Amino acid sequence: MIREVVITADGSSTIHLPEWDEQYHSKHGAIQEAYHVFIKTGLHHLCFSKENQMKSLSILEIGFGTGLNAFITLLEAEKLNLKVDYSGVEGYPVSSEEIAQLNYPLELKVEDKISVFNELHDLPWEDKNIISEHFSLTKKQLFFSEIKDENTFNLIYFDAFGARVQPELWTESIFKKMYDALQSNGVLVTYSAKGSVRRAMQSVGFLVERLPGPPGKREMLRAIKIVSKEG
Q1: φ and ψ at residue 7, rounded to 5 degrees
Q2: How many domains does the chain have?
Q3: 45-64 pLDDT, tens digit each
Q4: What H or E segment, with its residue span, contains residue 172?
Q5: Distance between CA 49 and CA 25 in Å, rounded?
Q6: Which residues touch 69 (CB under 8 Å, ≥6 apart)?
Q7: In which domain, by residue range, is 149 found?
Q8: β-strand partners of 165
Q9: Where on the phi/psi map is residue 157: left (φ > 0), alpha (ψ -120 to 50), or beta?
C-alpha cells in the first residue's frame, strides 16, 4: 500500500494512505490531536485529578506508528517528573525513510531531542529499553488481536486506524483485551466517538465518557475500568 508523508493543519507531519483516504493522525493537526486526546485527556487525567495524582504510569499504545504519541509522552514525563513505562504495539512498523521525513521535534521546538526521537525508532523491538530516568520503551510487533496482557497498564492510548477502514479493530473482542490489560481504575482514551465504539466498550464493562474532541472533531471517548469490590 502506498504511504505518503503529508503536512497537517498545525504544521506537523503525518502519513497518508491514499488507497484508504486515511491518515495516521488528524489532518486538522497531528500534534494538536495527540496532545488533546492522549496527554490532556489521558495522562493528565491520571496525574492531576483528585482521585489519582499518580507519579508513575504504565502505558500501552495501540498503534505505535510514527512514534509521535510516545515522543510527546516522553517530553511530558520529563516536564512532570513522572516515571513512565511505555509499551507500543504495531503490526506494520514505519520505515526509516518515512521517519526521516517526520518533523515533530522541529514543530515542538525541541530540536535538541531529534536524536531521542530517532532513538525511539532505532531501538530493538521486543526488548525493554531505558531511554532516561523518566521513560522506558518496549516496542512489540504484533497484531492487536494477539495482545494477551492482563492487569498490567494504567493507561491505554487507543490510536488504531478508524473504524471506517478497519472495523475489526473496534470490536467487543478487541475492547475485551483492552479491559483485561488494564489495572483496576485504568483508563483508555481514543479519538473516536462513534456510537458503535462506545457500545462495544460498554458491553465489556467499561464506564464510558463522551468528552470534547480535538480540533476538527466534536467529541472523543474516555473509558474507565471500574471493578467492584465483589469482582
Answers
A1: -105, 130
A2: 1
A3: 999 877 777 889 999 999 99
A4: helix 172-181
A5: 27
A6: 34, 38, 61, 157, 159
A7: 29-225
A8: none
A9: beta
Amino acid type, 141: Q
pLDDT tens-digit map of 131-160: 999 999 999 999 999 999 999 999 999 999
Whether the CB-CB separation of 134 and 167 falls below 8 Å is answered with: no
Q: Would 166 be classed as within a structural domain?
A: yes
**The dihedral of CA 100, 105, 106, 107: what is its sign?**
positive
| Cα–Cα distance, 137 to 88 (Å, whole number) | 8
- The enclosing domain of 211 has a CATH number of 3.40.50.150
DSSP assignments along 72-123, one per residue: HHHHHHHHHT-EEEEEEE-SSPPPHHHHTT--HHHHTT-GGGHHHHHHHHHS
In a domain, 84, yes or no: yes
Closest CA to 138 of 129, 146, 147: 129
Task: State how far the Cα of 166 lies from the Cα of 187, in Å rounded to an integer.
Answer: 23
Whether the model pTM is above 0.90:
yes
